[in-house]
Amino acid sequence: MGKRTLARLTPQAAPEGAPDMVGSSSALQRVRSLIDKIAPTDRPLLILGETGTGKEVVARRIHALSGYAEGPFVDVNCGAIPESLVESELFGHVKGAFTGASAYRPGTFSQATKGTLFLDEIGELPVALQPKLLRVLETRLFRPVGSAEPLHFEGRIIAATHRDLRAMVAEGSFREDLYYRLAVFTVELPTLEQRRGDIPDLVRHFALRQPRPLSFSPAALSLLRQQPWPGNIRQLRNLIDQLGVLAETPEIGLAVLEPFLAHAPEPRLREDEIAEALLRLPGDDKLLAAENLLIDHALARCDGNKSAAAKVLGVSRKVIERRLKSRDAPLQRMRDLLDDARLLVDSARYREAIVTLRRCLKLQGEGDGEGEEEALLLFDVYRLLGISLRSVNGWLCAEAQDCYQAALNLGRGDPLERAHLQFGIWGAQLMALDLVKARASAQDMIQHALSQSLGDALGDAYVALANTLFWLGDAEEALACLARCQLLGVDRTEERLGGQGIDLANLALTLEGLAAFRLGSFAQARKALAMLVRRLETQRFHAFNHALTLQGAAWLSCLFEEREATGTHGSALETLSREYGFTFYQGVGQIFRGIHEGWEGEPGVAEAVIQEGYDTLLVRRGGRLFHSFQAWHRALALLAAGRSQEALAAADLGVEVAMQTQDRAYLGELLVVRARARRALGEEEEACQDLYGALSTAQALGSVAARVEAATALAQVLRETGRAAAGTELLTRALRGVALSEAPPLVQRALALLATDADH
Ligand SMILES: Nc1ncnc2c1ncn2[C@@H]1O[C@H](COP(=O)(O)OP(=O)(O)OP(=O)(O)O)[C@@H](O)[C@H]1O
Fold first, then answer.
1. Of 111, 105, 75, which Cα lies nearest the Cα of 92?
2. Which of 10, 57, 121 gets mutated to test ligand 1 (max ligand atoms within 8 A of its CB)?
3. What pTM was computed for the model?
4. Whose CA is nearest to atom 13 of ligand 1?
């Protein structure tokens, strides 16, 4: 929105004034449904998306649908105000506050009172002003420049940016606390290329708004669908506007369209864009970084020939040699900094370590980057930076992953340290639900541990593989993995710390319980649960291991529908994780607390709690694991709340994600709940198909639990449609071989249905 400079006022925008959001792609539908949910709240909101994707449209729509619609929509572009004026522009100033302040002037916060303040290009907000905005978000108070009296802000803040704010947080140019305050809800807009299916509708929409309405031939529409759209919807709209004025005829076929595409300006890099990109180079000294980049690039283009590179750069060969030589001196400095960083990491002062290690990396950019010693130093720099970043930003911190990978790519380092790095990479892949990569990483870890005879790392590796296989739906192989590292049937006192300091014994008990439950070995699963609970009561674990153990206890209690225990363990997990900053596990705990709320008769609350736990705690950190599990329980809660259409949507999305990611852990259960939602909506036939699908999926995956669930639901349908005998037979077959001792309620429900069949 470089088009605006200062704030603009729109006096009112009633709901009917909500701007059009054309498009029916699933990506846009998701955005729309998110908007509908978020709009009525008064919480801040962050809209992310490339230029021209419709961030302002979304902001206006949210305003129009919100409780603030009667108030003004004030739109301010933080990037377009000179830095020295931003504060008075936002907060206003009193008379005499500075030279030229001849009268009181209200700022945009005052103008937007009882309305919506849209802070566009929030990434450009000067660092010095960020604490002031944070203060408004925390206290709702702000002070005009030169005034001692705080004023109250009664509106809602919506921020937007095309920048990667999380990267800005990581590099320190955007405050983390402000980021989390703004991003209470985040709407991420797809690019036009991610929703090409919407192009024909958008074209028609803009075509009708021309002075002489245009019509497009199917071939022209198809060509438009194939174009690159770096400027997104704005670029498309501009093209249609041009056609509206300049095309010879309003019937737009290929012949009319093509010349306009050919004349579309080539996307060229402007100087300010080049400069912006250079300013994002790592390190403090951007001038030096830019110079190094140019020299390295010229050398790479000339296959390392210095004379040729000098020619490309328009300097003498001597200049290049001098600059390259001056990069050697940093090696000693790098050693010194690395020593400092080691001490900082050892004393858990990770934030300071990050700063020191980044300085090291900057020096590396100045060395010639080839010597063996430098490579060894770099291995440690990347390794320690990865560890520090992960400790501050969580497991899924993308930059930490890049550091681990960079260290591994150097092909150096101690084997045990390399094993640790592999484990870090695997953990992040698993949490991001990148199961195929996670399986390959776990297999690499086993290989590496075996070839280097690393005992501790081997335990980690097998548990990692068992964990991945569980999510891939292979419960049997997961148990075999645990057996291979002697971690099956762990008893009360057994201890097994892996190379990462993770308590493998408790993790193995959790996995054993889950896999056994899936395979219908309910007694084994119950024993694992009981053991986890006893260990929680009798052993003292490090906080992280305590969290992992609580997770296992809550999860297994949930499968056995032990209501009280699910709530207790879930809440304990949530509290502990909040205290220690294990955001991901806090989200997991919240999901179990939500499930418990549902059982307590509050399904609407349950759904909201589960969704918030997943969306804001797991997903915010980049995690996607547990998608199928939470989708299954959200859909169940929605069904219980009588919101069948939403239940269907939640289950549908769950199935879609499960299919995409090969997360088959709860696929059968998801198909069953989807079928139940369809039945509630009267879609009997589709429901039946889903149930047969669920049954065969469960059978293919060897999931006894899902098989019994599916067969029970199907028997119910058959009974209600006059085919009770077929239902009885199907259910009897599904229950064949299922051990009844310690069986969970889902089996009891199947038996109860059979018993009523027998009565009939
Ligand atoms: N879903 C939509 N349906 C119809 N028109 C749209 C839609 N989304 C965006 N537009 C139109 O595309 C143009 C760009 O939208 P908008 O200004 O909201 O984008 P933006 O992401 O805020 O861009 P920038 O970051 O460059 O400021 C506007 O003309 C807007 O009306």
1. 105
2. 57
3. 0.55
4. 234
Q: Best mutation site among 8, 20, 56, 229 for ligand 1, i.e. most ligand atoms within 8 A of its Cβ?
A: 56
- 202 C-alpha vs ligand 1 centroid, how far in Å? 11
434, part of any domain: no
Atom of ligand 1 nearest to the CA of 49: 21
pLDDT of res. 46? 94
- Confirm whether 68 is domain-assigned: yes
User: In terms of domains, do 135 and 217 share one?
Assistant: no
Cα separation, 542 vs 408, whole angstroms:
29
Give exposure, 443-455, as e/b (b: 16+ Cβ within 10 Å).
ebbbebbeeeebe
pLDDT band of residue 621 (cuts 50, 70, 90) is low
* Residue 339 covered by a domain: no
Distance 56 CA to ligand 1 centre (A): 6
Using CA atoms, how far apart are residues 663 and 468, in angstroms rounded to an integer? Answer: 9
Query: Which ligand 1 atom lies nearest to the CA of residue 162?
Result: 25
One-letter-per-residue 3-state SS of 130-163: HHHHHHHHHHCEECCECCCCCEECCCEEEEEECC
Check: complex ipTM more than 0.90? yes
**Which of 19-33, 631-645, 660-674 is predicted least confidently?**
19-33
Whose CA is closest to atom 8 on ligand 1? Answer: 54
- The answer to the question of residue 49 being in a domain is yes
Residues with a CB atom less than 6 Å from ligand 1:
1, 20-23, 49, 51-57, 162, 202, 205, 233-234, 237
**Is 297 found in the same domain as 206?**
no
Same domain, 646 and 689: yes
Please give the pLDDT value at position 525: 97
Mean pLDDT for the chain overall:
87
What pLDDT score does 656 carry? Answer: 94
**Residue owning tokens 């806090």:** 586
For 194, residues 6+ apart whose C-beta sits below 8 A from its C-beta are 27
If you take atom 25 of ligand 1, which residue's CA is the nearest one?
51
Same domain, 223 and 176: no
CA 277 / ligand 1 centre spacing (Å): 24
3-class state of residue 506 by DSSP:
helix
| Three-state DSSP state, 551 | helix
Closest protein CA for atom 29 of ligand 1: 234
> Which atom of ligand 1 has the smallest separation from the CA of 47?
21
Cα–ligand 1 centroid distance for 136 (angstroms): 28
DSSP one-letter string for 267-282: ----HHHHHHHHHTSS
At residue 9, the 3 state secondary structure works out as strand
Q: Whose CA is nearest to atom 9 of ligand 1?
A: 54
Ligand 1 centre and the CA of 195: distance in Å?
14
Whole-number Å distance, alpha carbon 67 to ligand 1 midpoint, is 23
Q: How far is the CA of 746 from the centre of ligand 1 (A)?
A: 50
> Are 260 and 243 contacting, i.e. CB atoms less than 8 angstroms apart?
yes
Which of these ranges, 114-123, 265-274, 647-656, has the smallest mean pLDDT?
265-274
| CA pair distance 114, 153, nearest whole angstrom | 8
Question: 220 is in which domain, residue-wise?
Answer: 192-262
In Å, how far are 265, 273, 617 from 268, measured between CA atoms?
8, 10, 40
Residues near 650 by beta carbon (within 8 Å), at least 6 away in sequence: 631, 634, 635, 638
Count of domains observed in the chain: 4
Nearest to 537 by CA among 577, 497, 572: 572
CA 183 – CA 221 distance, rounded (Å): 37
How far CA 361 is from CA of 104, 380, 409, in Å, comes to: 49, 11, 16
Q: What is the pLDDT of residues 129-158, one digit of tens each?
A: 898 899 988 889 999 988 888 899 999 999
